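Same chain as my last thread, 186 residues:
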Amino acid sequence: MRRARAGGYRSRAAFKLQEINTRDRVLVPGACVVDLGAAPGGWSQVAAGIVGAKGRVVALDLLEVAPIPGVTVLQGDFREGGTRERVAAALGGRKADLVLSDLSPNLSGIASSDQARAAELVRAVLQFCRAQLAPRGALLVKVFQGEEFAGLLREMKALFREVRTIKPAASRDESRETYVLGRDLS
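reply #2:
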């Protein structure tokens, strides 16, 4: 966290997105980005810095997120119709070029239960993408390794033409989290 603060970021997660973007160039100037599960805002900070003034970043979380320059911050549950309408309004009639999701359920410590709840969130993100992601758009989503992992990959491969897993060096070695990048929404 000290390194994040020194870099002006709200969380260490910013370094994960920077690393992924350096390699995979998911963020580009002028892009329209939705960050689901944005709190505390590290990914939105990185996104806003790259998409610039001609781009758009909409950050959404159940928790309150302090304002971020260049980012429209919304509070709510993306699975609810009213919140999805507010996201669509914030996008100004555009579809997102990229959906970011570093979502995690509140963890109980019971691996099978936590993994199932995390998988349920990923499936909700895929539903969100069907409605809010532009054709040929991309999704970068956190997924926890476990018995649901293979099924989630199959579901992503049915939705995107290109799917690959990424384990950033910025992730802790003991963490079961990995990221899946889906490109070219079909």
